[in-house]
Amino acid sequence: MQPRHAPINPLISGMSGPPIPQAQVWAAGYDGSHGPLINLSQAVPGNPPHPDLLARLASAAGSADAARYGAIEGDIALRRAYADDLDATYGAPFAPENVAITSGCNEAFAVGAMLVAQAGDSVIVPTPWYFNHQTTLAMMGITPIALPALPENGFILRAEDAAALIGERTRAIALVTPNNPTGAIYPRETIAAFARLCRERGIWLILDETYRDFIDGDAPPHALFSDDGWGENVIGLYSFSKSYAVPGHRLGAMTADPAIITQIAKILDNLQICPARAGQSAVAWAIPYLKDWRRQNRDDILARAEVFREAIGRHPAWGIETIGAFFAYLRHPFQDIDAVTVAERLARERGVLALPGTWFGPGQERYLRVAFANVATAQVAGLGDRLDGF
Ligand SMILES: Cc1ncc(COP(=O)(O)O)c(C=O)c1O
Q1: Can you tell me which atom of ligand 1 is nearest the CA of 107?
Q2: Could you check whether the bond before residue 19 is cis, i.e. omega within 30 degrees of 0?
Q3: What is the distance between the alpha carbons of residues 11 and 13, in angstroms, rounded to a whole number?
Q4: Exposure of 239 by Cβ count < 10 A (0-12 exposed, 13-18 middle, 19+ buried)?
Q5: Measured in angstroms, how far is the CA atom of residue 172 from the centroid of ligand 1?
C-alpha cells in the first residue's frame, strides 16, 4: 500500500517506538490477582517532591516573571546553586559559567552529541546502553559503537577495550555512572582511565551522572574535576529529575568549560530558547535547602536495595548480577526464553513490571532491569512472593 504522507527521515521511521509505553501495555493486561502492580520499569522516584518544593513550584508557576523567556543557559540563580553543589560534590571549584541548564538530561545528552559530532561520525557507548543514548545518536546519523560491559567484570568497562574501538571519525565516549541499566558504579580509576584515553586520542568524554546523588557515602564519585585541564575534553551531564523527584518539570544540566558552554548555548537557543522557568526557581531554592532530604532519600533507597537482595535471595535461580544507586540487573533463570517474553509474562501473570535486557542492546537476553528505587520498601519486599512458583 502506498504511504499516505510525504516521506519522512528514514533515521526516524526506522527506529522502534519508545519502549516504556510498550511495557505499560503488558502491565495493563495484569488481572490484579497477586496484589497491586509493582512498577519497576521507568526510573521514577517513588517519593513525591518535598512539600516546600511543591509550594515553591506553585508560587513560581503563578508568577508573571516565570511566564517570560529566561536566559538561554538557564537562570543565573540555578546555575549558581548548581555550581555550588558541584563544588561540594567533587571538592573542586566551579562557576555558574561552567553550567548550562537543559530541559532534562536527555536533552543534555542530545546537545552534547550535536556539539561534538555530526552525521557520519561515531560515539562509543557501552552495552548494555541507556536506550535513549543509542537512539539519540542513531537519529542524528551518528554511529553508536558498542563497547560491551561484561558480567564477569561486574559490568565495569575497561578503557583498553575502548581504545581499540576509536576510529578516524570517533568523537566521544559516553559513559553512564552509576549505570542505567546495570546499576554498576564505575570506580574512580576506571573513570580516570577513560578520561586519560580520551585526552590522549583527542576525543570527548561525556559523563552522564544522573544517579550520582544515590551513591552511598559522601566521597566525590571521581577526581576528574580536580584536574585543571578537565575542560579540554570532559562534559558532565546531570538530571534534577531523580534527585528532587521532579521528572515532569524537565530540568537537567551540562557542566563544561565556559568556552564550551558558549557553544552549547548556540544549540540550546534553537532547541529550547530557555529551560522552563518555574522549575528552575524552585530547584535553585531546593539545592541548598533540601540537602538533608536528598540524603535521607538516598539512604531510604540504599535500605530498599538490601530488602531487594533479601526478597530475590529467596529464589536462588534468579541472580542479582549488579545492583547500585537506582537499579538492579537481574539474571533470569530461563535459559531458552528471551528476556522480552520473561518480562511480559512477569508483568501479565505476576504484576511485576521490569524491562527486558534486550531493550538495552545486544547480548542481554538473560537479563531484566529492575528500577527498585521506584516503589516503597513494602512493595520491594513483596517481590519474593511474586516470584514463588513463577
Ligand atoms: C542515564 C540517564 N540519563 C538521562 C536520563 C533522562 O533524565 P531526564 O528526566 O533529566 O531527561 C535518564 C532517565 O531515566 C537516565 O537514566
Answers
A1: 11
A2: no
A3: 6
A4: buried
A5: 19
DSSP H or E stretch at residue 253: strand 252-255
Q: How far is 208 from 308, CA to CA, in rounded Å? A: 25
Half-sphere exposure of 383 (CA within 13 A, CB side): 30
Model pTM?
0.96
Ligand 1 and 43: CB distance under 6 A: yes
C-alpha cell at 181: 541499566
Does the Cβ of 181 fall within 6 Å of ligand 1? Answer: no
* 130 CB within 6 A, ligand 1: yes
Could you give the 3-state DSSP secondary structure of residue 252?
strand
Find the DSSP H helices in 140-290: 159-163, 188-201, 240-243, 258-271, 277-289
DSSP per residue, 90-119: HTS---GGGEEEESSHHHHHHHHHHHH--T
Instruction: Tell me the CA distances in angstroms from 234 to 173, 195, 207, one per residue in order.
Output: 10, 8, 7
Burial of residue 12, with CB atoms counted within 10 A of its CB: 0-12 exposed, 13-18 middle, 19 or more buried = exposed
Report pLDDT for 344.
97
Residues 6+ apart with CB under 8 A from 251: 101, 102, 103, 104, 239, 240, 241, 275, 276, 279, 280, 283
Ligand 1 neighbourhood includes 179 CB (under 6 angstroms):
no
CB 344 within 8 A of CB 18: no
| Confidence band of 42 (pLDDT split at 50, 70, 90) | confident
The per-residue pLDDT for range 323-351, each reduced to its tens digit, is 999 999 999 999 999 999 999 999 999 99
